[in-house]
Amino acid sequence: MDIKTDDRVHFLDSLRGFTLVHMVLFHLCYDLAFFVGLDMPWFKQWPGDVWGGCIRWSFILISGIVFSMGKHPFKRGAVLMGWGCVLTLVTWIAVPDALIRFGVLSFLGAASIIGAAAYPYLKRIPAFYGILCSLILLEVTWQLPDGWLRLASQLRCGLPEALYGTKWLYWLGFPDAGFYSTDYFPIFPWIFLFIIGIYMGELFRNNGIFCWMSRWDPGALAFLGRHSLCIYLIHQPALYGLCLFWENLNIVW
Questions:
Q1: What is the pTM of this model?
Q2: Which of 108, 103, 43, 122 is nearest to 80 (CA)?
């Protein structure tokens, strides 16, 4: 299945570029706080959690929104998952303390493949109801990696421990007791946020909002958004090198 468009939506490129800048700054703060040991109490408390959460949700939603405008979603998904495997291998060898297992690239790759397979069926559901059902499923599965389904605010249903007893189902959202990853986006619950983005894209398309967005002036942020994969791949090694330089500079002084 090919899903394509003739026009780039520059507003979404700019929004993704804006989110990308925040992601780089967030990771810089993370490296300074946890690797360099810089005293940043605000980052380790709720302001840092809110900042990181906004970045994560924005990236996945934007990826879902632009999904129906991309070309060759199966191929793109395979490429993203491949780079996700590369990041896992590199961090496992070079920085095991910062190991990445099924991080955001792996998730977005898997979501693209799942979305491409499910897209003909998703389109049969009106966007409003699709968003509503996805929100409910996101709420229900939000604590799935912790062993629970959340049926209501005060009602939870425990899942069989056997699901969390294997080392090979973490990518679905069933991590074992010893699982560790500095960047973890399992299929459940995050796939439902991605699907919400797909339905938002359908609403934008049906109401002509994409036409307005495409007329947005493509500036520097849009350029960053168009090259988000390359920037994502190089920013952490660059930041880690900067932190090592910072540490060595402090030692010299």
A1: 0.90
A2: 108
